[in-house]
Every structure is written in structure tokens, then in C-alpha cells.
Write a structure and sequence with these properties.
Distance between the termini of chain B: 16 Å
Number of domains of chain B: 2
Structural class of chain A: alpha/beta
Number of strands of chain B: 11
Number of helices of chain A: 20
Distance between the termini of chain A: 57 Å
Largest sheet of chain B: 9 strands, mixed
Largest interface: A-B, 28 and 29 residues
CATH superfamily of the largest domain in chain A: tm_1862 like domain
CATH class of the largest domain in chain B: Alpha Beta
CATH superfamily of the largest domain in chain B: Pseudouridine synthase I, catalytic domain, N-terminal subdomain
Largest sheet of chain A: 6 strands, mixed
Strand content of chain A: 5-15%
Strand content of chain B: 25-35%
Shape of chain B: elongated
Radius of gyration of chain A: 25 Å
Number of strands of chain A: 19
Shape of chain A: globular
Number of domains of chain A: 2
Strand order of the largest sheet of chain A: 2-1-3-4-5-6
CATH architecture of the largest domain in chain A: Alpha-Beta Horseshoe
Helix content of chain A: 25-40%
Oligomer: heterodimer
CATH architecture of the largest domain in chain B: 2-Layer Sandwich
Radius of gyration of chain B: 20 Å
Order of helices and strands of chain B: EHEEHEHEHEEEEHEEH
CATH topology of the largest domain in chain A: pyruvate-formate lyase- activating enzyme
Structural class of chain B: alpha+beta
């Protein structure tokens, strides 16, 4: 597409298709907050794409933030796209129409950069499908100079090797600043005419930006089936790519104009990010490891974003988002201010990620003054022993305290989230999940005879850049056996409803999460055999994934089930979330010893690397943790006082074994 | 106090569903700071009542909703300029076209509306075919359709509810029809009418007709047709007009 070409509006050709598809409002745009940017040969254009349906992709905060930041630049323009559902895709291909933006219905290939958010590995085949539907060659090596650059960001990019063949550049970490650096370079290249033979040079320049990884600039060597090394092809390309981190959220009060969709989406409410990063140190949690350090948004900015956002959008519900919202220093005040703000009418507050040890009667009482929202607690494991292994240091009593707080304030049902298949897990640990569920219902019956809990169980998938990255995932059969164990134990138990994640989907996620570049052929195989929308049970097929591995001579055991050793080169070793590999290894050994590790935001640093490596610090408004519960110490702190440092990790123990 | 609001729906936004439109209104009313009354209970909802659902994809010049205002604060609402104010908070393609005060004892829109006038642009057929199909339909004693109801196929005669049906004027690449279809005891859908014609005009799918609801009507016992806003005006005094 010549860069000076006028913008194409596909709407007249799309409009006749919409009466024939399910949920046509997915494709119309029209959101409050939508921008209709002007394109031009001197403007760098971005198409921010979520590789799943509109309902799932629209609320994605990362894409909305970048969409606004780019559109605020006079020399750039941004629009959005989402994966068309299978019925729409069929019509598009039949009519010879490409992937398009929902803002001005412009063909994807007319953008300079098509950037995808990757939040889940099972969307990888949709990524490939969207590139293909855009009319762009799926392999980066086959792309011409004038083809759009395919970029990816989001949590999955901490191991982008399985999709390395398909993408031109990968962004690690916070996007707010790095997006500007990329725009500068791409803009210069565009204004110079995107001349033949200059794409490689541009990519090489991009690879020097902190937080940008260009897979094609690296050579991958194998030693037998093992990875030997991933090394830069040029001396000026960094050996190790560090993530990008914004130091202060107060500088980035985005989204300022959250998009309000005209049709229902998964999180149909105002969302205000109260902090980024988490140092609770749960060892299974990739998000907590890769987003450090903790950076709180000032409470007054949070309150302002809530009241202005509610007035602007007309929403009657606000979600305070973070990885553990009850840990926010200003939580009680912000919740109280919001529910008592008469200016915005009846408002309910959702706290989507709650640690039980910080959920108090006070918060429960404030929340229920408006409408009651669903409550989900995540004890993650059924026994104290297991929770020490995963470093989720909450006692049974903390859970019971939180649950009783909620029941006493009028809630009648809540959801408890658990993982199974964790390192060292015994059947006793697994059955502890059922026991906790039963005990919670008993507590609830003191307040309401119809009290109930939903116990939701997911199979654990080890993730890159975490202490559990060396752990061999439980086999699919083993995960299924554990689910059966719980089903049998809870049979006939009134008030406890058991739900479980498809264990076959956990296996497919395992294949993609810690794979190397050889997985690219597997993803391509699944896509070529119709395997899109793998997050959707009606489209998911484990047989297709296993067939694809076999067709490429790869082994599920080797990629998923085996434990990895300390000296093994991991596919993501040349990418850094700031965490020292020896810190992660030590934390893995501590896990096996059932040793906990303190939350460092209120206690001395143990040098994981996330702050010291980048010369940044936690931004926390309070020097002491919020009141109540055990605050991750396993010790009852409800009487007040500082957090005792009793669970600091021991000195290094012998490795191996 | 109860307000009846008239609005139109055109363009891209026509692909939103009836449920979507209800949510769009809830948000718009909150942004307008209108003191809407809420239901009691664990999950209080704003007291809004919508008229006949408009099928997803159809446009309209005559949509209505009734809004109950808080009895204490509702009396202070300034109706002058409210339509402009509301339209500013509605998405592109939706416009508030009028506001009146109605008596709360009046039957709901769902109960009161007796028929709708539709404009239907059918593409890919010539006028003589359409004229023949219409003539046959109007001359027929019954027009049978089959539809699914609670998982079972039922057949209905829609002829008694086809009050009027005629070719309006030729348009580019097709024919424009005007029809008035009854809504009691059940609203006949435009697609049901088109599929009951011989030959059916609802196929092929690629030439989906463009449909516009032009009017909704309330027929009173004396046989007079009224616009839902006019009936409201007549039954309530003093009437507020935006």
C-alpha cells in the first residue's frame, strides 16, 4: 500500500454483510470515546488489535491507553480492531475483504503498525489468522518493505519465542513510553518513503530501543533437542532485552476517555487502575513477577478519575483494578468516597482481585452500601502447607474471617478460586480445597440458610519468568484425576458448587507458554487446520495441538511435563523482566522447602532485581500495610502493629536435587 | 412523574439490539443527571419502560420510552431543552425528538400501541414482481407463516394484521414498500411479512432489505389513530413540550 494513498472506507461493503452475522454491533465502532483520526502520509498509523472477539478485547486497558496516547500525538493516528467471529470471517473471505478497523473501517494493511495485545497463549492462532486476514504474509521473513510492521505486547511477550516467526517486534513491559520511541523511528522511515531494502535497517534500529525485542535480529542455536544459545546477529543489537517500566503512574492518568461500547462486553463498567505491580511474591503468578515494582496511583487522582469517569460514561459501576486491590493504601477512603458521592448517584464498586487477608468488615460494609457485586476470593490452595510452597501466605483463619465479613454484611454467595497441580501437591492438599469450601458454607449458614460458595478450580500452568518456570506441569490425566477427587469428595454437599477449567486447555496452554521457536510450526499447523478461537470451548481441540506436535516431531513430555534443570538455557533467558535468574532459582528451592518470602514493599529489599536493576523504587503511599488479617505473614496482625519479619528467606541452600 | 421520550435510530447504531438500546438509555439518563426513580431491593434498577422492540438492524423514526422520575426531585425537572440535552449524551445516530409528561395510570407503550408503519427497501427485484406479490397477498384470505415459539414450530395467519401494503416509489436498485402491520395481540415482524409473500422477498440473504419504522400508532375506541406523543399530551395536563 503506497504510504501516501488516501484512506479506504470499507463500510459500504461491510454494511450488507452485517445483517447476516451474529452480534453485528461488534463491528460498528460508535463507542463513546471513539476517535476518528485523520490519516496522512506524514502520520504514523497504528492499528491496535485484540486477537479475540470484540466483547473480550474492547475492555483491554492496555490497548485503550496506547490508543489515546498515540492519538494525542499530532504526527500519529491510532484505530482498533478485533478478531472477527467465525461467521464474519467466512463472509469477509468470501467477499475478498480484509481485517478492518472498527473506527473508520479502514483495511488493516493500510496501517504502518498492526499491534496485538497478547494476554493468553491460546489466542496465538488468532494472531496468525488476523495477520493473514489483513492480507499480510504470516511469516515476518516474507514481508515486503511496505507491509505493516507486526508488533505484540502484553504478558505473553515475556516468552514470545513460539510466535517469533510471525512478528516483527515485541514490546516488553509498560507501553506508555516505549510506544512513543517506536513511533518516532517508524515515522521517520515512513516520511523517507519506506524504500526497498530499508525494512531490515529499521528493525535493527528498533531493536536498540529499551523494551523492544526484534526476534529476527537473533540467531538461535540448538544442542540436540536442547537450546544452546540465542545471540544477537549484530554487535549493536543488545544481548539481553530489558523490559520497559514507567516510574510513576501519576504521570499517566489513562485512559482519560474510557471507551464505552454500544453493546455488552465482558467488563462493562468503568475501570480505574489503582496500582501496577505486586510484591506479594506468589510464586505461581507471572503477572506479579513481571510487573514489579509496586507503583500506586495517588489516592486523590484515583478519586478524581472515578468521579469524572462515572459522570462522563454514565456507568453505575466502577472496578478498581490492580493485582491485589485490597493492598492499595487508600482503599477504604476511595471506596467510601465513591459510594457516598451523591453527584454520581447509585454506584457499585467492584474489587476484582482481593486478598482475603486484607478484606475487612470495613470494606465489606462500604461495598454493600451501594449495590452488591460478586465477591471472589483467591486462596489458591487448599492447605497452609501448600500455600507456603506457593508463597500465598494466608491462613485458613484469614479466609474464614473474610468470608464471614462478607456474609455478615449480607452477601449470600461468593466464589473461591483455587489452583491444582501445584509443585509438591498431595491428595491431602487437593482435598483441602473441598474442606475450605464446606467450612465457608457452614460459616455462611450462621447468617443465611441459603448461603453458598462456588469453588472454581484451574489446572496450574507454569509460566516463564517465575520461580516455577522449571517445574514440570502435571499431566492432563493427573489434573483430571485431581478434579475427579474433588468431584467425588463434594458429591452431595449442599451449598458448594464445584467448577473446573478444562484440563485439556491447561495442556495446550502449557505447550505454548514455555515453548521455543520450534513451536511456530505447531501454531501454524493448528491455524492451517482451522484451529482459531482456541479460548472458546466450542472451537478448542486438544487433538489438533497434539497432532501438530507429532507432525513436527516434537514431544509433549519434553515441552510440558518434564522438570527443567538449573543449567538449562530457557527460551526466554535473553529477555528480562528485571528479576535475577539466581533469585528465581533460590525462590524455587525455597518453595520446595516450604519457606515463605516476605512482601518487600513494607520490609527490607531482598534484591530480586526489579528495582535495583532499573534504578527505580516502589511508589507506596503508606509505610505500613492495610489493617486486618495476617498480611501475608501467616501471623495474626488484626490487633495492629508492624509486620514481623519472620519469614525472610533463608540463605542459599544447595542447588540441584 | 413519568416522561415519555421519542427518539430515532439511524445508521451504524441500528446494528445494536433492543437490550443494547436499553443500556444506552440508562447511561445517557445518568449523564444527563435526570433524577430517575429506582426500583427497591438488592439490585435497584432505573424505572424505564420501552415500547415494542425494534429488530437489530432496523432503523426507526418513531421509538419511545417511558421514564419514571423520583417523586421528590422529579418536579423540578426543566423540560425545555431536554431533548437537545439528551441527544448530546446519545451516540451518533440516536436522537431524542420529543419529551412529554404522561399520566402514570396510562397503559404502557407495549399495551397501547396497536400498529406500526414500516418503510421497506427491497433490492434485486423488479417492481412488477413486487406488485404481483402484494396484489396476491392482499387478495388472499390468509397469509400463513411458521415461526418458532418455545422450541416448537407454530403456524400463524398474519393476514388480519396486514392493515396496509403498497409500493411507495421506485428507488435505485429496487422497490420501496410501505406497510402498516398490527401489533396486537402480537407484533408482526417485517421479515415475517416478506417471507409470506409469493415469491418471498426476504431472500436471498445478501440482499437484506433495509427497513425503517416510520410510525407507531395508538388506535382509540373511536377508530382514530394517534401518535404516542399526542395521546400522552391529550391525557396529561399541563403538557410539557420540549
Amino acid at each position: 500500500m503506497p504510504s501516501g494513498a488516501p484512506s479506504t472506507d470499507l463500510w459500504p461493503r461491510l454494511e450488507p454483510l452485517l445483517p447476516q452475522v451474529q452480534k453485528p454491533a461488534r463491528y460498528i465502532g460508535c463507542e463513546d470515546g471513539m476517535q476518528t483520526p485523520e490519516h496522512g502520509s506524514d502520520k504514523t498509523s497504528w492499528l491496535f488489535t485484540y486477537p479475540d472477539t470484540y466483547e473480550i478485547g474492547l475492555p483491554n486497558a492496555g490497548l485503550q491507553i496506547l490508543y489515546e496516547i498515540i492519538n494525542e500525538r499530532p504526527d500519529a493516528a491510532a484505530e482498533r480492531s478485533y478478531a472477527p467471529w467465525v461467521d464474519m470471517e467466512e463472509l469477509l473471505r468470501r467477499e475478498g475483504l480484509p481485517l478492518f478497523s472498527v473506527d473508520t473501517h479502514k483495511p488493516a494493511a493500510e496501517f504502518d503498525v498492526v499491534a496485538f495485545n497478547l494476554s493468553a497463549e491460546l489466542t496465538y492462532t488468532n494472531l496468525v489468522n488476523c495477520i493473514d486476514l489483513a492480507g499480510v504474509p504470516i511469516h515476518s521473513a516474507r514481508r515486503a518493505d511496505a507491509d505493516p510492521l507486526i508488533a505484540v505486547g502484553g504478558h505473553c511477550t515475556y516468552n514470545p519465542e513460539p510466535i517469533a516467526d510471525f512478528v516483527d517486534l515485541v514490546v516488553l513491559g509498560d507501553g506508555e513510553e516505549v510506544i512513543g520511541d517506536i513511533t518516532d523511528l517508524v515515522g521517520e522511515w515512513k516520511r523517507n518513503g519506506k524504500n526497498a531494502g530499508t525494512r531490515e535497517g529499521l528493525l535493527r534500529e528498533l531493536s536498540k530501543i529499551e523494551g523492544v525485542y526484534v526476534p529476527s535480529m537473533y540467531e538461535v542455536e540448538y544442542d540436540g533437542e536442547f537450546l544452546a544459545a540465542v545471540t544477537p546477529r549484530y554487535p549493536d543489537v543488545p544481548e539481553k532485552v530489558e523490559k520497559r517500566t514507567v516510574t510513576d503512574l501519576a504521570d499517566w492518568p489513562y485512559p482519560k476517555q474510557q471507551l464505552v461500547p454500544m453493546t455488552e462486553v465482558v467488563h462493562d463498567r468503568l475501570a480505574v487502575e489503582v496500582f501496577r505491580g505486586c510484591t506479594r511474591g506468589c510464586r505461581f503468578c507471572q503477572a506479579g513477577m513481571i510487573t514489579r515494582p509496586v507503583r500506586e496511583r495517588p489516592a486523590e487522582q484515583v478519586s478524581r478519575m472515578i468521579s469524572e469517569g462515572l459522570q462522563r460514561t454514565g456507568y453505575d459501576e466502577v472496578s478498581l483494578t490492580s493485582l491485589s486491590t485490597a493492598d492499595f493504601s487508600g482503599i477504604e477512603k476511595v471506596v467510601a468516597d465513591t459510594v457516598s458521592n451523591q453527584g454520581v448517584g447509585q454506584v457499585s464498586v467492584a474489587l476484582p482481585s482481593l486478598r482475603v487477608d486484607a478484606f475487612t468488615v470495613g470494606i465489606a460494609a462500604e461495598l454493600q452500601r451501594a449495590r452488591r457485586t460478586g465477591l471472589t476470593f483467591a486462596p489458591e490452595a487448599g492447605s497452609w502447607r501448600m500455600r507456603q510452597v506457593i508463597n500465598k501466605l494466608i491462613r485458613d483463619e484469614d479466609l474464614y474471617g473474610a468470608v464471614e465479613s462478607a456474609y455478615s454484611q449480607g452477601w449470600r454467595r461468593m466464589k473461591l478460586y483455587f489452583l491444582t497441580g501445584l509443585p509438591t501437591e498431595t491428595d491431602e492438599d487437593t482435598l483441602g480445597i473441598a474442606e475450605l469450601g464446606r467450612n465457608c458454607v457452614e460459616l455462611g449458614k450462621k447468617y443465611n440458610s441459603s448461603a453458598s460458595v462456588t469453588v472454581s478450580v484451574g489446572g496450574f500452568v507454569p509460566k516463564p519468568q517465575t520461580p516455577f518456570q522449571w517445574f514440570g506441569q502435571n499431566t492432563e490425566e493427573e489434573l483430571r484425576r485431581k478434579v475427579e477427587l474433588l468431584k467425588n469428595d463434594l458429591r452431595g454437599t449442599k451449598g458448594v458448587q464445584l467448577k473446573w477449567h478444562d484440563t485439556r486447555a491447561s495442556l495446550a496452554e502449557g505447550i505454548t507458554s514455555r515453548g521455543d521457536r520450534r513451536l511456530g510450526a505447531v501454531i501454524e499447523y493448528v491455524w492451517r487446520h482451522g484451529g482459531t478461537f482456541q479460548e472458546w470451548s466450542e472451537h478448542f481441540s486438544i487433538d489438533l495441538w497434539l497432532e501438530a506436535l507429532a507432525a513436527n516431531g516434537l514431544d509433549v513430555d519434553w515441552y510440558v511435563y518434564r522438570h527443567r534443570t538449573e543449567d538449562e538455557v530457557l527460551p526466554w533467558d535473553h529477555l528480562s523482566a528485571g528479576l535475577h535468574k539466581d533469585f528465581l532459582w533460590q525462590d524455587w528451592r525455597d518453595a520446595l522447602e516450604e519457606l515463605g518470602l516476605e512482601d518487600c514493599r513494607w520490609t527490607p529489599c531482598y534484591d530480586c532485581g526489579a528495582c535495583t536493576g532499573y534504578g527505580i523504587e516502589h511508589v507506596v503511599a503508606s509505610a505500613t500495610p492495610p489493617a486486618g488479617g495476617s498480611q501475608g505473614t501467616g501471623v495474626d496482625l488484626s490487633a495492629g502493629g508492624a509486620v514481623p519479619v519472620t519469614l525472610q528467606t533463608t540463605k542459599p541452600i544447595g542447588v540441584g536435587g | 412523574m413519568r416522561l415519555r421520550i421519542a427518539f430515532s435510530k439511524h445508521g451504524k447504531i441500528r446494528f445494536t439490539s433492543h437490550r443494547d438500546v436499553a443500556r444506552i438509555w440508562e447511561r445517557a439518563l445518568r449523564r444527563t443527571n435526570l433524577p430517575v426513580a429506582y426500583s427497591e431491593g438488592f439490585t435497584p434498577r432505573p424505572k424505564l419502560s420501552f415500547g415494542l422492540a425494534l429488530s437489530t438492524g432496523h432503523e426507526s423514526e418513531g421509538e419511545y420510552l417511558d421514564v419514571d422520575l423520583d417523586p421528590e426531585q422529579g418536579a423540578d425537572v426543566d423540560l425545555a431543552g431536554l431533548t437537545t440535552h439528551l441527544s448530546a449524551h446519545l451516540p451518533v445516530g440516536m436522537t431524542a425528538t420529543g419529551v412529554v409528561v404522561v399520566d402514570r395510570r396510562m397503559p404502557s407503550l407495549q399495551q397501547a400501541v396497536t400498529s406500526c408503519t414500516w418503510q421497506i427497501d427491497v433490492c434485486g427485484v423488479d417492481e412488477s414482481t413486487v406488485q404481483a406479490a402484494i396484489g396476491a397477498a392482499l387478495a388472499a384470505e390468509e397469509l400463513m407463516i411458521t415461526r418458532e415459539r418455545k422450541g416448537k414450530e407454530v403456524t400463524d395467519d398474519i393476514r388480519p394484521l396486514v392493515f396496509d401494503l403498497a409500493v411507495d416509489q421506485p428507488i435505485e436498485q429496487g422497490v420501496r414498500l410501505i406497510t402498516e402491520l398490527g401489533t396486537q395481540p402480537r407484533a408482526v415482524r417485517v421479515t415475517e411479512l416478506l417471507s409470506a409473500l409469493d415469491p418471498p422477498l426476504a431472500e436471498p440473504l445478501l440482499n437484506e432489505p433495509r427497513v425503517l419504522r416510520v410510525h407507531q400508532w395508538i388506535t382509540t375506541d373511536d377508530g382514530q389513530r394517534h401518535d404516542p406523543m399526542n395521546v400522552a399530551a391529550a391525557a396529561s395536563a399541563p403538557a410539557g413540550v420540549a
